[in-house]
Design a protein that fits this description.
The protein is mainly alpha-helical. It contains six helices and no strands. The chain has one domain (7-115).
């Protein structure tokens, strides 16, 4: 996985199914730790590929393909910022349900930002 290959590829090289590989991860602490280390190496390999491509070190680097890979494999997303403001009078005129809806959406956005983790989670 340190060469950019997935856990599925690793399992295929062992001649086992991906499901068996995940059972091993769940059943054996040392295999779980090894998988965590391998996941970090896998993510790092793909990051370094993008860095080298962006620096012009890879001829004909496919930026779009790399971005697609990062979004789909590592849950990368485009950053979106939303700002809004309400005057106190406007807020006082809103029904309680609307105020709660606004508050919950703000909490969800903040939580999503705080939970954004560049280290991939175990894929299952």
């Amino acid at each position: 996985m340190s060469q950019g290959h997935s856990f599925s590829y690793f399992c295929s090289q062992l001649g086992i199914s991906r499901e068996t590989g995940y059972r091993w991860v769940q059943a054996k602490d040392d295999f779980f730790e090894a998988k965590q280390i391998a996941d970090t190496a896998y993510y790092t390999w793909w990051q370094e590929l993008g860095r080298a491509g962006a620096a012009g070190q890879i001829q004909n680097f496919g930026n779009a393909a790399w971005i697609f890979k990062m979004k789909n494999t590592f849950n990368w997303t485009d950053k979106q910022e939303i700002t809004a403001s309400l005057e106190r009078k406007q807020l006082e005129e809103l029904p309680d349900e609307k105020i709660l809806e606004i508050a919950f959406k703000a909490i969800e956005r903040k939580s999503a930002q705080q939970n954004a983790n560049p280290i991939p989670k175990l894929q299952q």
